[in-house]
Each structure stands twice: as structure tokens, then as C-alpha cells.
Automatic annotation (TrEMBL), chain A:
Keywords tagged on the record: Cytoplasm, Nucleus, Proteasome
GO CC annotation: cytoplasm; nucleus; proteasome core complex
Organism (species): Micractinium conductrix
Native organism taxonomy: Eukaryota, Viridiplantae, Chlorophyta, core chlorophytes, Trebouxiophyceae
Name of protein: Proteasome subunit beta
Record carries keyword Cytoplasm: yes
Chief place of localization: cytoplasm
Function text: Component of the proteasome, a multicatalytic proteinase complex which is characterized by its ability to cleave peptides with Arg, Phe, Tyr, Leu, and Glu adjacent to the leaving group at neutral or slightly basic pH. The proteasome has an ATP-dependent proteolytic activity.
TrEMBL record, chain B:
Protein known as: Proteasome subunit beta
Alphabetical UniProt keywords: Cytoplasm, Nucleus, Proteasome
Family: Belongs to the peptidase T1B family.
Protein origin, superkingdom: Eukaryota
Subunit and partners: Component of the proteasome complex.
Primary localization class, coarse: cytoplasm
Top-level taxonomy: Eukaryota, Viridiplantae, Chlorophyta, core chlorophytes, Trebouxiophyceae
Compartments where located: Cytoplasm; Nucleus
UniProt cross-references to Gene3D superfamilies, sorted A to Z: Glutamine Phosphoribosylpyrophosphate, subunit 1, domain 1 (3.60.20.10)
Coiled coil: none
PANTHER family: METALLOPROTEASE TLDD, PROTEASOME SUBUNIT BETA TYPE-1
Role summary: Component of the proteasome, a multicatalytic proteinase complex which is characterized by its ability to cleave peptides with Arg, Phe, Tyr, Leu, and Glu adjacent to the leaving group at neutral or slightly basic pH. The proteasome has an ATP-dependent proteolytic activity.
From TrEMBL, chain C:
Family to which the UniProt record says this protein belongs: Belongs to the peptidase T1A family.
InterPro entries: Ntn_hydrolases_N, Proteasome_alpha, Proteasome_alpha-type, Proteasome_sua/b
Transmembrane regions: none
Domain of life: Eukaryota
Protein's name according to its UniProt entry: Proteasome subunit alpha type-3
Cellular component terms (Gene Ontology): proteasome core complex, alpha-subunit complex
GO biological process terms, semicolon-separated: proteolysis involved in protein catabolic process
Keywords from the UniProt entry: Proteasome
Record carries keyword Phosphoprotein: no
């Protein structure tokens, strides 16, 4: 049988490569490698084999130990009739601004968006999982879609499963959605730490933007107020976070659906005296 | 960060073991404190709702208590992701137990199940510190206290999590448990009236919140009696 | 007594592709499952929707396999595959023998002969999708027994549906149904 998407193995769990048990083709049509029954797990998964890499250099196999291309903070707030998510569009290779138009906020379906910081290739992998799920939903043709809370829970399981394999997906993800008249805002970390709150931020945002949110956020904010707060938070993050650029996107989820804005820049002010002559009080620097 | 990327011409000699990164850890401590006190006909369970990592607060409102039925619940501190997973596992085990037995799981059964569940991950443990609490067959309060790998013991009161060093001595002092060495075995249930026990727990949390940065925000308090579960809330300092 | 929509004959297999099957219903669902898997697999390999001819070829070779072994019986369905991808709208007919052809108009099932006759009379190049709906409804009414009721199931993939598989909106479907009945009655009167 044509393998179903490997990343949704029914036998091993979401986000894991492996066989699916759904709807196999008659056995005779499938040339299979001869295998002793004792080697084959009952669930149909591949039997364990010695990893060649482990034999080659006498070291245990190593998985992702640090990220390569990264995105910085994602911010999210709830307001009266929806949720706002925001992030910049930078993919940084170390401290190099490598990809300047990487869209880190993505629509999942009409009720849900996700935004990711951390390793961007891992985020693309995660988006593929979500797209496969929503394509399956489309083909089911029963009108059901993943709810934001379900997307959040699913991602929690994916990231947690991968940390259990010591092969983490290096992301902090924010899930924003609107369902049954209520806004939803949740986040997942790379070891599966998850929670929901009225306002959220990943990475530096947790230090820079969240104090502002704690001070100014109200659940009954209007869209204008919420957008203004978001702009302020983005600006603070941009001023202080070296790995960010002045090119942002804002995603909005309301009862009317999802919209992800075109990239925009915020007006910044660098005309402070100390900025103009940063070496004034530090002789010998440039 | 830049130094970590493979851009440098010189490569450290094999085996020199130059560590360029804090190595990734699958574990994190999200803090939080849980307390349970068993009385003659009640059980008080309380848990702080702050969730932190390092010096940052992640959220101020995360419940650490999973209620299975009016006579049995568990409260867990430690790593939130493991806690969530453990709670999911136990919840589904409780649901299948009810299908098979046509009644909710008792506290003693849940205590053993929790121990087994933790021990099954003996070599990659759930980083959680649990209390299983409720009312036993006779309607008396029951508290079971655990370590991360499933050793457990029934006690009259218990405390786990980041504030346990601060709270446990207070409980020891106030509830004066008889030594388990005394023969014949002494009653180790608290003889305090319910309201005093609740006040004691609240007082203990206020003190812990004063000194432990991982204990704060709110405390959710569940009071189990034969009439069901009553909830209460205590607000701590949010600093 | 059958509940409405409980015996579907048209199925989405991807955002841009749908399958209409005639014959053994269970075989139909199985082939739909296969088509979904193929579409899914293609997308995860190449990152774009599967082109119509690829999907049709893959389905054809799949059903063809079931003609080759003594232990298996051939598929009991003929299926119409509709795809709207980069190449524009395409219609394929996949038969149990493993043949697959591309058509401008095709019909499968019991009344295919009559239906094909009617399709030949249409000016397909000049037709809009909405007109197509009416024509299809009329043909289906023509080839079905008048006494024996049937459920009209309409789905489309066109500009109007955003090039996605979609059930024709109920109101449009009802209108097409009514128009078809009226047209047929008018023709009967003429005779």
C-alpha cells in the first residue's frame, strides 16, 4: 500500500515516522522484505535495528542540539471579539539576518492561526503536519474543522513526543483562535510545556512585552486598543531585541475568520542623544 | 550564538570536548507547591497556580490538580509538560476503569495506579512530585505522597513542590503526627476541625509565598467531604 | 427510507480534486481512500497539488493490479475524476480494467449511454459552470426512471468555488433540479 503520511503514524503517535494502520492493501500486492516473525512487532512497525551511525563513530546518535535558522518572539493577546498575534518576519542564521521575509504567522483554518519562534525548518515541518490534518478534514467533507484548543493540544503532544525521543522540535509556538464566541490563546514550548492565558509571548517577548501586557491588557479591549497595545509591544521588542527587524505581521482571528496582514514597519525614533554619540561616555570604544 | 555555527576554520580536536552550548535538557522545573491534609471526615487539597521557568513567570493561572471523582484527586508539582501527560494518562485509565468496573476508582486504587505509572518510567522519569488525596472506603481523609519514580506512602498530611521545605515543617509542627515507630500504631489523621485545617493550609501558603519565588499568585483549595467537593481560593502576592 | 446524503457518490480527494463513482459503493469508497492517499503523498513529496493526469494514471495502475492475480477480483467501479490544477480543469474516466482517458464530457453507470448522447448535444466550449449544473441535472433526470426517485448530488470545482471541491450550494442545486424537471415536462408536452 502506498504509505499514508508518515508523520501521522497511528501506531507510534503524531509527529512520529512510522506505519499507519489505516486501510492496508491486500498483502499480496506489496513486495515486502522477508522478515522473521520474531523481529516484527505486532503493530506493524519496523523492527528495531542497530543504527549505523552509532556503529560508525562509537558515539550515540545525536539529534538536534541547537537551532540554525531562528525566529525571535511571537506575541499574542486576546481582546473583546478575537485574538491578535504578531511577530517580525526575520529568519536569523546565528546573528546574520538571513531571511528577511519569512512569514512566521500562518493560518491553519478559518478559526485558527499559529505563530512560531525558534528553528524555522522545524516550524515548516510542523506546518506540514497541520496542513495534512486540515486537508484530511477537508476530504472528510463533514464540515468539521480542528478547533483552536485541539490544534494547541495536538501541537503539545507532537512537541512532547519529540522531546521524549530526545529529538526535539526547537520551537515555541503560539496558537490563536476563535471558537464558540470565545477567543483562544495558548502556547507550547519545545519540551511540551503548554498553557493558555489572556496574553502570551515567546522568548524575549516574555521579558520585554509581557510586563507591558500585564499592565495594559484587558479582556474587553476593542480591536483598536488591542492593535495599539500590540504595536507598542512590538516596538519595545524591536528596540531591545538585537535579532529582530522592523518588518512585522499581525494576524487577527475573529468570528469572521482569519486574516494575516501584509508586512508593515513601525515608526521608530533613534534620535536620542546617547544613540547619536554612543561612545561619549565610554572612551576608547567606537 | 555565532561561534556555535559551523563557520570557523579551526575545529577543536576530537575528544577535547569544548562545550559551546549549554546542552539541551528534556527537563524543566516549573515550580509550584501542593499541600494536602487529611482529617477524620475530610481532606483539604491546595495548589498554587503560578507556573514559572527560571526567573520568569509563564502564567499566573495554571491548575495543578486533577479531580477524578468526588473522592479522589491528584495534585502535582514539578515539570508542567510531564504533569499534563501524567494527568492525561491517569484520566484515561480512570475512564476505562469506570467502563470495566462500573464505578469510579477509589483513592487506594488510584494511589497504586499512580505509583505503577510513575515506576514504569523509572529510567526516564516523569519529573513530577505528586500527592494523591481523597476519602477512603471508610470516609476518612487519605493522602498519599510520592517521589518522582513511584515510591509512595500513606500519610496524614503531605506537601510537595518548590515550597515543601518551607511548608512541611509547619505541618509537622501543627499536626503533630505520631511517629510511625510507636506501637501500637497511632492515629495519624489530623484531629483538627475542618475550618482550622483550611486556615492552617492558607497560612502555610502565605508564608511560603513570602519566601519562595515559585509559589505565588493564587492558591486553589479543594475541600473534600462526604457531601462532595467545595472549592476555595486564596490570593497570594503577585510579586 | 434512506437518510439524505447517506449514500454519497461524489467525494473530495484533495482541495482541488474530486471523484464521482458508479458501481459497488464499497469499492468506490476504497478507491476514494486510495486517491486521497495518492494526493496526500504527492503533496508531501513535491509540495504542490497533484496534477490531474498523474492522479488519474496512479489510480488506473492501482485498479489495474487487481486484474492480475487469481486471488483478487477487479474493482467494481468506474470513476470520474475531476481536477482543477495548474493545467486548468480536467476530467478523467478511470475504468476497472485500468484504462484511463481524458474527456470533455463523460458518463458512467447504468444510464451512461443515454447520458452520453445528451452530453454530445451540449456546446461544452461555450458553457459556464452554472449552465453546466443545469444541463447535468436535466440529463440525470432524463436517464432516471420517473417513478423511481433518486437523489441529485451536485459538486463542482470552478472559479466560483475558488478552484476547490465544493458541494453546489443548496439553493443553486434546488434551482437546477426544478429547472430540469420543468424543462423535461415542457418537452413531454410538446411530444
Amino acid at each position: 500500500m502506498l504509505p499514508r503520511p508518515q508523520s501521522h503514524s497511528a501506531a507510534l503517535g503524531p509527529g512520529c515516522t512510522g506505519p499507519s494502520l489505516a486501510n492496508p492493501t491486500p498483502l499480496g500486492l506489496e513486495p515486502r522484505p522477508v522478515r522473521h516473525a520474531s523481529q516484527a512487532p505486532a503493530c506493524g512497525a519496523e523492527a528495531f535495528v542497530v543504527d549505523p551511525v552509532a556503529l560508525a563513530n562509537g558515539q550515540p546518535r545525536k539529534h538536534t542540539q541547537y537551532p540554525y535558522v531562528t525566529g525571535t518572539s511571537v506575541l499574542g493577546i486576546t481582546y473583546k471579539d478575537g485574538v491578535l498575534l504578531a511577530s517580525d518576519t526575520l529568519g536569523a542564521y546565528g546573528s546574520t539576518k538571513r531571511y528577511k521575509a519569512f512569514e512566521r504567522l500562518r493560518k491553519v483554518n478559518d478559526a485558527c492561526v499559529v505563530g512560531a519562534s525558534g528553528e524555522l525548518s522545524d516550524f515548516q515541518f510542523i506546518m506540514r503536519l497541520l496542513e495534512e490534518l486540515s486537508d484530511d478534514d477537508f476530504c472528510m467533507d463533514d464540515g468539521h474543522r480542528l478547533k483552536p484548543a485541539e490544534v494547541h493540544s495536538y501541537l503539545t503532544r507532537v512537541l512532547y513526543n519529540r522531546r521524549n525521543k530526545m529529538d526535539p522540535l526547537w520551537n515555541s509556538i503560539v496558537v490563536g483562535g476563535f471558537y464558540a464566541g470565545k477567543p483562544f490563546l495558548g502556547t507550547v514550548g519545545m519540551i511540551g510545556t503548554s498553557y493558555t492565558d489572556a496574553h502570551l509571548a515567546t522568548g524575549f517577548g516574555n521579558h520585554l512585552a509581557r510586563p507591558l501586557m500585564r499592565e495594559k491588557h484587558r479582556p474587553d479591549m476593542s480591536e483598536e486598543e488591542a492593535t495599539a497595545l500590540m504595536h507598542e509591544c512590538l516596538k519595545v521588542c524591536y528596540y531591545r531585541d538585537k535579532n529582530s527587524i522592523n518588518r512585522f505581521q499581525l494576524a487577527k482571528v475573529t468570528a469572521d475568520g482569519v486574516s494575516v496582514s501584509e508586512p508593515f514597519a513601525l515608526e521608530t525614533k533613534w534620535g536620542y542623544k546617547l544613540f547619536q554619540d554612543p561612545a561619549a561616555n565610554a572612551v576608547g570604544t567606537w | 550564538m555565532a561561534a556555535s555555527l559551523p563557520m570557523r576554520a579551526t575545529v577543536p580536536a576530537a575528544g577535547s570536548g569544548v562545550k559551546q552550548h549549554a546542552s539541551w535538557s528534556p527537563y524543566d522545573d516549573n515550580g509550584g507547591t501542593v499541600v494536602a491534609v487529611a482529617g477524620d471526615d475530610y481532606c483539604v487539597v491546595a495548589a498554587s497556580t503560578r507556573m514559572s521557568t527560571g526567573y520568569s513567570i509563564l502564567t499566573r493561572n495554571k491548575s495543578k490538580i486533577l479531580t477524578f471523582n468526588p473522592k479522589c484527586l491528584i495534585a502535582s508539582a514539578g515539570m508542567q509538560a510531564d504533569m499534563e501527560t501524567l494527568h492525561k494518562v491517569l484520566h484515561s485509565r480512570h475512564v476505562t476503569y469506570q467502563f470495566n468496573h462500573r464505578r469510579p476508582m477509589g483513592c487506594q486504587a488510584m494511589a497504586q495506579l499512580l505509583s505503577n505509572t510513575l515506576y514504569h518510567k523509572r529510567f526516564f522519569p516523569y519529573y513530577t512530585f505528586n500527592l494523591c488525596a481523597g476519602l477512603d472506603e471508610q470516609g476518612r481523609g487519605a493522602v498519599y505522597t510520592y517521589d518522582a519514580i513511584g515510591s509512595y506512602e500513606r500519610v496524614g498530611y503531605g506537601c510537595q513542590g518548590s515550597g515543601k521545605e518551607l511548608i512541611q515543617p509547619v505541618l509537622d509542627n501543627q499536626l503533630k503526627a505520631a511517629s510511625p515507630l510507636v506501637l501500637p500504631a497511632q492515629q495519624w489523621l489530623s484531629s483538627l476541625p475542618l475550618e482550622q485545617a483550611v486556615d492552617l493550609v492558607k497560612g502555610a501558603f502565605v508564608s511560603a509565598g513570602e519566601r519562595d519565588i515559585y509559589t505565588g499568585d493564587d492558591v486553589e483549595i479543594l475541600i473534600l467531604t462526604k457531601d462532595g467537593i467545595r472549592t476555595d481560593k486564596l490570593e497570594l502576592k503577585r510579586d | 427510507m434512506l437518510e439524505q446524503h447517506s449514500n454519497r457518490r461524489t467525494f473530495p480527494v484533495d482541495r482541488h480534486a474530486g471523484l464521482a463513482v458508479a458501481g459497488v459503493a464499497a469499492d468506490g469508497r476504497s478507491i476514494v481512500g486510495r486517491a486521497m492517499a495518492e494526493a496526500n503523498n504527492y503533496k508531501s513529496t513535491y509540495g504542490e497539488p497533484i496534477p490531474g493526469h498523474v492522479l488519474a494514471e496512479r489510480l488506473a495502475s492501482y485498479v489495474h493490479l487487481f486484474n492480475l492475480y487469481w486471488a483478487y477480483r477487479p474493482y467494481g467501479v468506474a470513476s470520474l475524476l475531476a481536477v482543477y490544477a495548474r493545467e486548468g480543469p480536467q476530467l478523467y474516466l478511470v475504468e476497472p480494467s485500468g484504462t484511463m482517458h481524458r474527456y470533455f464530457g463523460a458518463a458512467v453507470g447504468k444510464g451512461r449511454q443515454g447520458a452520453k448522447n445528451e452530453i454530445e448535444k451540449l456546446k461544452l466550449e461555450e458553457m459556464t459552470c452554472r449552465e453546466g449544473i443545469n444541463a447535468v441535472a436535466k440529463i440525470l433526470h432524463q436517464v432516471h426512471d420517473e417513478e423511481k426517485g433518486f437523489e441529485l448530488e451536485l459538486a463542482w470545482i470552478c472559479e466560483e468555488s475558488g478552484k476547490q471541491f465544493q458541494r453546489v450550494p443548496q439553493q443553486l442545486a434546488d434551482e437546477a433540479d426544478a429547472a430540469a424537471k420543468a424543462a423535461l415536462e415542457a418537452e413531454d408536452m410538446d411530444d
